[in-house]
Amino acid sequence: MQITKENLTIIIVTIKSQNIIDDCLKSIDPDIKKIIVENSNDQEFLNYLKEKYKNIECYLAGKNLGMGPGNNLGIKKSNTRYVMVLNPDTILKKDSLNHIFKISKNLQFAILSPLSDNKDYPNYKINNKKLKNEGELFEVDQVDGYAMILDKKQFNNNFFDEKIFMYLENDDLCLRVKKDNKKIFIYSKALISHLGGKAVDKKYFNEIEFSRNWHWNWSKFYFRKKHQGFIIAFIFGSLTFLKSIFKSIYFFITNNKFKSKLYYLRGLGFLNALLNKSSWYRPRLD
Hints:
This protein is α/β, with parallel strands linked by helices. It contains eight helices and eleven strands. It has helices at residues 21-26, 43-52, 67-77, 96-103, 169-179, 205-228, 230-253, 257-274, and strands at 8-14, 33-38, 56-60, 82-86, 90-92, 111-116, 124-125, 137-139, 142-143, 147-151, 184-194. Helix 1 links the parallel strand 1 (8-14) and strand 2. Helix 6 (205-228) runs antiparallel to helix 7 (230-253). The chain is globular and about 60 Å long.
């Protein structure tokens, strides 16, 4: 089967993304269906999107679900075989999707992604030495979560792990795909720009950084425990925990309150995961 405008839905999870979403949506063919999941109660933002863009459905999550659960909500609302998970701080290059449409004919895949236009920050990893990065279409072990097309039939309704609020949800998905002997591809003729860390208004910078540091260590422990076992997760996590606490104390003594809290939250993220607590921390975006 081939991906077309008619059987593809683009899923974009947003939160306080008014500053960046227009550039993303303008880069998408207006004839393609789009689903926006806003991780808040901001009805005004969704009204703005519905008035400005066609072929768009908007849903309020009511609270900050995170990236994985937010994407799952959008996927469940879609009625097409293929969905493209897209971050709001991305811009598709001209004809990127047309290139994807052409190459997808008779291609068996679970995940198919465009290529980052920034050569210094590739959006894929190849861990298996048997996989060779050759040609315009090449198989990889992992792709970044900011742009990936999923063939829903390959997943049996088992998409992103909803225990993960943010970070490593795409790594987990890709690893499960590879364990099931399914394919992940990058197509280098289809290009995308990722602004990185711009999805939320910069006025919330401190809160977002606090959240990122807490969840990075929570997710690393959870991911390692899930795929490598508790002992490996504990060993690696404990080293990070000790470094984080020492740095938090140092920056507290030197009166750098921001960095002191940052490293304290890194340690706290690991500790909560170790104690088997959920990824509960949320940034204050009021």
